Each structure stands twice: as C-alpha cells, then as structure tokens.
Amino acid sequence: MHRARLRNRNIGGEDLRPLTLFLTVFVLNYNGRDRPSMNILPPTTIRPRRLYPGDLLGVVAPASPAADLARVEAGVRYFEKNGYRVRVGKHAGSVYGYLAGTDEERVADLHAMAADPEVRAILCLRGGYGTTRLLPLLEYELFRRDPKVLVGFSDITALQLALWHRCRLVTFHGPMVSVDFSGNIDPAAEQSFWDAVGGAGGDIVLGEPGTLSVLGRGRTEGTLLGGNLSLMAALAGTPYMPDFSGAIVMMEEIGEEPYRIDRMLTQLAAAGVFQGVRGIAAGQFSDCLPKDPSRPSLSVEDLLGALSRTLAVPFNTGCRFGHVSSKVTIPIGLQAGFDATRGRLTLVCPAVE
Asked: Which of these, 225, 245, 293, 304, could form a disulfide with 276 (CB 3.0-4.6 Å)?
C-alpha cells in the first residue's frame, strides 16, 4: 500500500505529459459540427423572485426516494420554524425501486409546483438517480412563465442544466431538504443558502488559502455552469446540455474511482464541452479513491492537473461545494467574476430579483 502511494506522489507534470496531450487533442480538435441541434434559446437570463418569510415552498423528489421520512419531516420543520409555509409534493414519499415514484409521478409533482403561482420555491429532497429520465417529459414553459427558486445538487444537476439551456432560468446548486436541513445544518452552509435566495450581495468564498489548490492563477468572468461531474458527462451530446463556451465550470463528485473520473473528463472533452470555457472551480471529490490501493492508479489531482495544463485558464480545486456539509450555494446560470487565486466568485448582480 505504501509503495503504491509513493508512486502516486511521484507522478509529476513531466510524467503526465501523455495525459495532458491526450486531453488537448480532444479539446482543440473539436469544432462543434457534430453536436445535436438544440432548440432556440430565450435571449436573456431569467432570475426568480427572492424569498420572503411567509412564502410557500414546494418540496419534491425528482430522483431517488428519501431513505428516512423522519429526515423529511425534520427538514420541513426547519423551514416552518424560519417562518415559511411548506407543501410536500403528492408523490414525494413514493418508492418505485430506486426511484421516488414513477417518472410520471415525479414529473407531476414538479409540474404542480411550477404551475402554482403561490409556490415561490422548489426544494429538492435529495439526489441519487432518476432526474435525467424526466427531462424529455418536462413542460419547460411552466418554469419560464413563472420563475421560482429551485435548489438542489448531485443528481439535480441534470434538471438545473436543462432549465438553463431551455429557459435561461437561474437555479441554485445548494443544500437539500432531507440531506442538509434535517439535522444540525452547518452554519456557514445555512448562511450561504439564505444569502443566495434572499438576494444578499458580496462575494461567494469558495475556500481559504489553506484549503484551496490553485492550478491556474488569475481572474476571469463568465456564466456559472456545471455541478455533478457524472451528470454533466451523462448530458453531453443530448439536447439538454447547454453550451459551456464562456462558462466558469463548477464540478464535484462522490464515490467514483479515478479511472471513472478520467472517463468522464475525456467524454466531456471529446464532446467539446470544455471548448471556450473561461475558468474551472473544482469542488469536493469525496471518496474518489482507488478501491484497490495496491494497484497502480492516477489520482483525481493528477487528472485535474492535466486538465488545467490543457485549458490554461484560471483553475482551482478544493472549493466548498459538493457532497460535504459545509457548502456554499452557487447560482447556476448567473454571470460572475472568478478569482482563482483568492478563491472568490463575485456575482454581477443578485441571483434573485
């Protein structure tokens, strides 16, 4: 085990030149001609209205079922204690194998919340799997007509990217009802959430100097896009994946071995997703280690280092978002400045109106 760890530590930039070249070939040779045709997009960004105490919040489960309904109830009580009314979707407690109900049931809950003018936010219970199955069934006009705050992460990335691509709706990569609000919520995560949905200004602090690794120094500006790496790779080449040109790309992952991370990054590069991006902010890659440490392996750090050399844009890792309790809430689809060296996002305007 110790020999394997030493081999990984000794992998440096020179040894990884073949990996860097491999990614460069994909990124530079992609010309976009083979990308599937997309629908005509709305011309401007749509921001939802900010939340106020007394607002009605809708709770839905677009992916997997909640493992413990007591956690759902605890999450609901959290928002009620903070002065909000909560309506749980009709099918949010359903179980259909590894899904929180059938596709039709989960879409029905999303549509019901989106169509109800009294509901001002759609909060996701948890991630898991299943959101991608809903994208062809969604009535996107409902979300465009009455924009609401929508919050989630992990598998919810698919819904957020599709809503940005089809509606130009700003959504929020942030904490979920039964995951983060059902127990002792991290104070920093709590403050970041309420700042985001309440329209507070100021920078989003992605991390402190001791926790961040800067792979590409500098500042840039672009559209905040991304989320969970698996879901980004799953959407590549589909009519639900937005154009990432001009984007600051956020990415995080959990429980995937390095070779699988390599496959996802290679897929995104081959699909042209990294073409024209302006910066990368990599969050937490939790438990993304080789299952068998006795076998040779690259590390996630090796892979992200190779990508940073390929793209040559402001790039940092270790940011405070992903499958961790202390997370920042990030508005997906909003323009922001990105200082990779200092680990800061500066929003051009509040994410809500």
From this structure: 245
Q: How many CA atoms lie within 13 A of 198 on its CB side?
A: 10
Residue 346: helix, strand or coil by DSSP?
strand
H or E segment to which residue 247 belongs: strand 247-254
Fill in the DSSP letter of residue 66: P
Do residues 61 and 68 touch, judged by C-beta distance below 8 A? no
Q: What is the DSSP letter of 238?
A: S
Distance between CA atoms of residues 255 and 262, nearest Å: 14
The CA-atom distances, in angstroms, between 83 and each of 51, 57, 77, 141 are 11, 11, 10, 30
The sign of the torsion formed by the CA atoms of 241, 265, 149, 330 equals negative
* CB neighbour list of residue 3: distance below 8 Å, 6 or more residues apart: none
The domains of the chain, with CATH numbers, are 2-39+203-347 (3.50.30.60), 56-198 (3.40.50.10740)
- Whole-angstrom Cα distance, residue 305 to residue 317? 10
Q: Of 131, 127, 125, give the one whose Cα is nearest residue 78.
A: 125
Please say if the pLDDT value at position 34 is more than 80: no
3-state secondary structure of 5: helix
- Catalytic positions: 154, 252, 323
* pLDDT band, residue 209 (cuts 50/70/90): confident
pLDDT, position 290: 97
Percent of the chain with pLDDT over 70: 88
- Report d(CA 161, CA 168) in Å as an integer: 9
pLDDT in tens, 91-136: 999 999 999 999 999 999 999 999 999 999 999 999 999 999 999 9
**Angle 258-270/300-311 helices, nearest 10 degrees?**
20
Q: How far apart are CA 194 and CA 184, in angstroms?
A: 16
**Per-residue pLDDT for 42 more than 70?**
no
Question: Each residue of 195-206: pLDDT tens digit?
Answer: 999 999 789 999
Q: Give the whole-angstrom CA distance, residue 164 versus residue 247.
A: 13
Structure tokens, 297: 């392996």
Phi–psi pair at 169, nearest 5 degrees? -90, 125
CA distance 297 to 341: 29
